[in-house]
Amino acid sequence: MIKEFRLPDLGEGLTESEILSWKVGVGDTVSLNQVIAEVETAKAVVELPSPFAGVIKELHEQPGTVVEVGKPIVSFEVADDAGPAPSAAGAPAASGQDAGQDAGKGAGDAAGQAAGESSAGTPRREPNLVGYGAVVESTGRPVRRPRTFPAAGPVDAFAAETRPAATMRGEAAPADTTPAATMRGTGKTPAVEHLAAASDQPAGERPRSTPPVRKLAKDLGVDLARITGTGPQGLITREDVRHFMDGQSAEAGSPGEAAADQGGGKAGQGERETRTAIKGVRKFTAAAMVQSAFTAPHATEFLTVDVTPSMELLARLREGREFAGVKLTPLTLAAKAVLIALRRNPSLNSRWDGENQEIVTFHYVNLGIAAATPRGLTVPNIKGADSLSLVQLAQALSALADTARAGKTPPSDLTGGTISITNIGVFGIDAGTPILNPGEAAILALGAVRRMPWEYQGDVALRQVMTLSLSFDHRLVDGEQGSRFLADVGAILADPGLVLTMV
Amino acid sequence: MSTDETGQGGPAAPDSARHPHGQGRDLVQLVTPSGERISHPEFDYWVRDVTDEQLCSLYEDMTVIRRIDVEATALQRQGELGLWPPLLGQEAAQIGSGRALRTDDFVFSSYRENGVAYCRGVDLTDILRVWRGTASSGWDPYTINMATPQIIIGAQTLHATGYAMGIQNDGADSVAVTYFGDGATSEGDVNEAMVFAASFQVPVVFFCTNNHWAISEPVRLQSHIQLADRAAGFGIPSLRVDGNDVLAVMAATRVALDRARRGGGPTFIEAVSYRMGPHTTADDPTRYRDANELEDWAARDPISRIAALLERKGLLTEELQQQVKDKADAVAREMRAGCTTMPAPEPLDVFRNVYSTPNSWLDRQQDHYARYLATFGDPAGAVAEEGAR
After folding, report:
1. In what residue span(s) does the Lipoyl-binding domain sit (chain A) (predicted)?
2. Do B355 and B237 share a domain, yes or no?
């Protein structure tokens, strides 16, 4: 039989967790309590032990996905006659559901409504110890919606349910809320009676019902907005819901449900747009880019250099015994050049600490390398890159790239970078304005190495030429230091022998 | 390394700084981390009756409670428990002391002493009830003479002292034993309990497991002197033992129990150990703790230590190891089955066990609630719905 495992609340009152990695694949046989996944909550990175002994049938969520508590993440094929499994079997699904509905009361009640919101907002993971509760997350938590009664005209009690974002946002727009809203509960204000009488007019509050009825409607997949209440003041009763269901048995998913589906993109046939939920790495990247672009004033400089000597050096090094089996690329030399140039221009290896009103100058280099991975852009860094020899640096670079491409970069590699390189040359691009990795003072983009006519010893010759693009945080680095740094990197690549004058 | 043998933690400070009153003392240790039995002029006497067979059974108990702990942690990760406070690393402190008790002694523990509960013979399923959220407490304290775990830090020390005053009034020779952590010694309750215990010279043992961390707070921040030395301020004699040495813990507990039974009043025991896991399953110690520290303490693992002792004595046979493993697996299986098949409470169960005698106000509320539930028509559906919410 197939058993689903739903994401439990791994802390106290958490509503979501991110799948970092799966330790198993579809078709693998797993034993009870075998570690199957690594999951990051707002509080901790934890390993998930398998609740069943069986075979993995399906992994419902990919690494990098933020999953709501209570959502199925993996299915197992479990032998019907497995020893302890049957006793262990029924409950997990049930309690998983419990967890989903207890812990994420938000996930429960407001799942439909809030789904669209779950991807919005900047993900903030703060140190969060037991006893202090989770950081309030945008997902799931039922936000108390103000009952808004436009001053003029009757309102539709039922229009709001289908537009979660709008109603949520209603809170942030107190202008919509008239004094009448504060009088709700007396049940005697003219506005309320008015409302009850005129339920077919546009705009207003969510349908009136009671929590058990809303639960019933949710379980049956009924959109309350489509039901006309027969109770006092338009209250929707259980009978109304049941009645509606009888009449609608043929109709499967309601529009409300469809809107709430937060799954991946829906690219139906003939549709002119694809809507993809903003989540995972995309969400993080976006937040990081916005934070960087709007806090650090960027300045960018370009330098085009003849790197033929470097290419010749590369060719010689590749033949050397010391570099046998080591992947040497223009990036390797460029990285080394950056590390050497940084010693002469330390201000590019620093951080703006606005909180303490201090500039932190690092005496070590954690060199970030922008990597395109299946999950999207990540910038893992090489810790202590300045202390590595060229061989070690080359090895570290290829290890970093392999790990990133396999999607196995540990979180520790993604933090603590001090300066970054992005190699846009591999896409055949010459130059661009890179955006700083947040918290860093500089980022260097390497362009493609091209054979171009270039001035050489007084003549025009076909030379291998590359453009370097350097963006720096102008709060930390002046044009002078930025220019000197870029000139140093260019000089090393144009004539590697010049390193002798720099170290 | 940020902890040291003295249990004070922190970078090595000069002795004068660490023990401003010059009262720093050595740990009582009967078995070294490498499993060597070393003699102690005073404490050997208290474990002279421990046979090879009993050593093997101490090893079994420690292994079993570690297995219980691992299984419960897994159950939490699988969504079967809401929370679990692991005891990993504190097995010797719990088994060494728990096994020294008489059945008519009474235990008042914190939430981490599941190993002590095991010694008292608790039903495995009962340990999990609270953590699964199906009951407000796990068992009837009088069936195993152990109160259900106290969540309020240190409050159980007052309960124990009160109970010990009762023992004194009865003229009995049983003892109340209370377990708490290093952090609890900073609580008012623990200090008040020690004042009362000293004033009335009641038969209570204050068993403090110094596991070095009060959630994220290292013990050195809470006390500039050794915890055992705090007891002197209350006029309570204290002992300081290696909490990862099951024999030393047992000896110390027996010394304290003997004093209490003979009318000598309270004793404070500091068992220096280490919480190798998180504070609870909702905690991530890597955020505040140096990984090297864990490594240092893993080298002093209490189970490895008794295993090494058994090996030296030629007792650690494959047969014994297999037998212990089978026992641990069986216990884990039984606990898992008990957990996953535990029935969820009915809505009206909330009214049970509130008062021991009929109460008209409660009856009225129960009646109202029952009628509310009845409005759903289908009682089964209503129950399921209530349960889900």
Report:
1. 2-77
2. no
B chain contacts of residue A48, beta-carbon cutoff 8 Å: 77-78
Helix and strand numbers (H, E) in chain A are 14, 19
Cβ-nearest to A101 among B76, B79, B389: B389
CB contact under 8 A, A130 and B280: yes
Q: Which residues of B touch A43 (CB under 8 A)?
A: 282-284
Given a contact cutoff of 8 angstroms between Cβ atoms, the answer to whether B275 and B212 are in contact is yes
Q: Do A215 and B341 make contact, defined as CB atoms within 8 angstroms?
A: no
Shared domain for B282 and B323, answered yes or no, is: yes
Minimal-distance CA residue of chain B relative to A44:
B284
Bridge partners for A54 per DSSP: A30
Residue B284 placed within a domain: yes
Tell me if B87 is assigned to some domain.
yes
Asked whether residue B291 falls in the same domain as residue B382, the answer is no
Residue B3, in any domain of the structure: no
The answer to whether residues B268 and B307 belong to one domain is yes
Residues of chain B neighbouring A216 (CB-CB closer than 8 A):
385
CB B101 within 8 A of CB B177: yes
Nearest-CA neighbor of A292 among A420, A413, A385?
A420
In a domain, B258, yes or no: yes
Give φ, ψ of B98 to 5 degrees.
-60, -40
Q: Do B389 and A87 touch (CB under 8 A)?
A: no
**A237: nearest CA in chain B?**
B376
Q: How far is CA B115 from CA A280, B89, B121, B244, in A?
A: 42, 11, 10, 14
Interface contact flag, A101 B388, Cβ < 8 Å: yes
Pick the most confident of A351-355, A377-381, B324-328.
Answer: B324-328
**What confidence score (pLDDT) does residue A207 get?**
79
List the single residue in B79, B281, B389 with the smallest CB-CB distance to A95.
Answer: B79
Which candidate, B115, B126, B113, B121, places its Cα nearest to that of B156? B113
Interchain contact, A91 vs B281, CB within 8 Å:
no
Output the CA–CA distances (angstroms, integers) from residue A43 to A124, B116, B288, in the order listed. 11, 29, 12
Dump pLDDT digits (tens) for A163-206.
444 444 444 444 444 444 444 444 444 444 444 444 444 445 67
Whether B364 and B336 share a structural domain: no
Q: What is the ipTM of this complex?
A: 0.73
By percentage, how much of chain B surpasses pLDDT 90? Answer: 80
A-interface mutation test, from B284, B373, B385, most A Cβ less than 10 A away: B284
The whole-angstrom distance between B389's CA and the closest CA on chain A is 7
Per-residue pLDDT of B139-188, as tens digits, reads 999 999 999 999 999 999 999 999 999 999 999 999 999 999 999 999 99
Closest CA relative to residue A499, chosen from A341, A391, A390, A386: A341
Instruction: Evaluate if residue A112 carries a pLDDT over 70.
Output: no
Find, in chain A, the residue whose alpha carbon is nearest to that of B217: A129
Are B331 and B363 members of one domain?
A: no
Which CATH number covers residue B288? 3.40.50.970
Q: Which domain holds residue B90?
A: 15-340
Q: Which of B49, B30, B60 is closest to B307 using CA atoms?
A: B60
Query: Mutating which of B66, B73, B77 best tests the A interface, going by the most A Cβ atoms within 10 A?
Result: B77
Let me know whether B261 and B383 are in one domain. Answer: no
> Considering B301, B316, B340, which residue would you say is the last residue of a domain?
B340
In order of their start, the domains of chain A are 2-112 (2.40.50.100), 146-252 (4.10.320.10), 281-501 (3.30.559.10)
Structural tokens at position B307: 């295993």
Query: Is there a contact between B284 and A43 if contact means CB atoms under 8 Å apart?
Result: yes
Which of A3, A5, A23, A46 would best serve as a mutation to test chain B binding (most B beta carbons within 10 A)? A46
Is B215's CB within 8 Å of A49's CB? Answer: no
In the structure, what pLDDT confidence band is assigned to residue B383 with cuts at 50, 70 and 90? low
Q: Which token pair is A41?
A: 């909550």
Mean pLDDT for B19-47 is 82
* Number of structural domains chain B divides into: 2
* Residues of B annotated catalytic, as ranges: 275, 279, 288
